[in-house]
Design brief:
152 residues; alpha/beta; 5 helices; 5 strands; 43% helix; globular
């Protein structure tokens, strides 16, 4: 399975970017994975969000299952995410695109394209912190499924 994390803009904080890269490196031992950073809009209005969302949509392969990080999504425990990951593998899912929108959210078109919605937490996080947690939780899910001690 291929995991494709897609978000607008680069992770500017060096420490957080380093953490994303570290967890992506660990995750790559289990599966193919990548980060796709699309060009971020410089203004925050409806037209800019639509353009940014269009770039995100263009980065999603046609047959990917789209998992959108969303405040209204389902909150999973790490073990529940691991079980979901196992279901995708059992179903021979080839690719999962994990989409994290910008600070103003995503267009209705991305919301319609998403087959699943995931809420990391009820807490408010910066988008850069959410990136770290999303990648880390997928690494944790693989560690759980492989019986590795990381989960403890």
């Amino acid at each position: 399975m291929h995991l494709r994390f897609i978000w607008p803009g680069k992770t500017k904080d060096d420490r957080l970017r380093s953490l994303v890269n570290e967890y992506l490196k660990r995750l790559s031992r289990f599966t193919r994975c990548e980060i796709v950073e699309v060009r971020e809009s410089t203004t925050r209005n409806k037209t800019a969000i639509e353009k940014e969302s269009r770039r995100v949509l263009e980065a999603i392969p046609e047959r990917s299952l789209v998992l959108l990080l969303d405040l209204n999504g389902r909150e999973w425990s790490s073990k529940e995410l691991a079980a979901q990951l196992q279901r995708w593998e059992t179903d021979s899912r080839k690719e999962v695109a994990i989409v994290i929108g910008g600070p103003e959210g995503v267009s209705a078109e991305i919301e319609l394209r998403a087959q699943m919605r995931w809420r990391l937490t009820r807490l408010t996080l910066t988008h850069e912190m959410a990136r770290v947690l999303a990648v880390e939780q997928f690494y944790r899910a693989y560690a759980i499924n492989r019986g590795l001690p990381y989960e403890k």
